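Sequence only, no structure available. Ideas?
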Amino acid sequence: MIYPTLVYAHLLLFVLWLGGDLGVFVLGQHFRRRDYSLPERLTLLKLLVAIDMGPRSAWALMVPMSLTLLYAGGWWVGLPLALVLAGWAVGLFWLWLVWDAHAHDMTPRSARDRRIEGWLRYGLTAFYLGLGGASLAAGAPLAETWLALKALLFGLIFAAAIMIDHAFKPVGPQLMALIEQGSSDATEVPLRATMDGTRRWVFTVYALLFVTSWLGQVKPF
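Reply:
I predicted one. Tokens follow.
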């Protein structure tokens, strides 16, 4: 019962990640509409940030869950238990960073948390890209082609999410300008352009998530 239960938990994390992210996307679409009043749009933004905590939490927990599934299912022969435990330590620490930054938003502590989280993402991007790429090239440590591809695509999801944060950086100052100066072309157009640029990477993450989940379910190769 252990392995099927872990697969079920993995599926729940996927639903929380993608479902919550779609909610964030819909709220973001409504925030862009200038026919809403500014207070209404700021309320939508607060809801967006709150809902986004679900996908962010699920993403952090996907890391230890993926390693646990590899270990419990025997998909990675010779995977040390110490690496699985280290994955849980990293995932739980990342989860704490996400919520601590949320609780202390707009403070130096939040900036520190997000900076550490950024370095974690870079490291995990390299790990999953390396794991998937090496397994595709050498047939080890992940012998199944679908699983090696899934690891590689998970690394690409990390990379695309990093690009989302990079593209989204100008939003902070642009949003402050909107709040302080009111809605006008001078404040709305740059903000809209930044959000449009971010959406391309959001769609990339969605596509990668769909393909990754399909590989895990169908196991075509």
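The chain has one domain: 2-218.
Hope that gets you unstuck.
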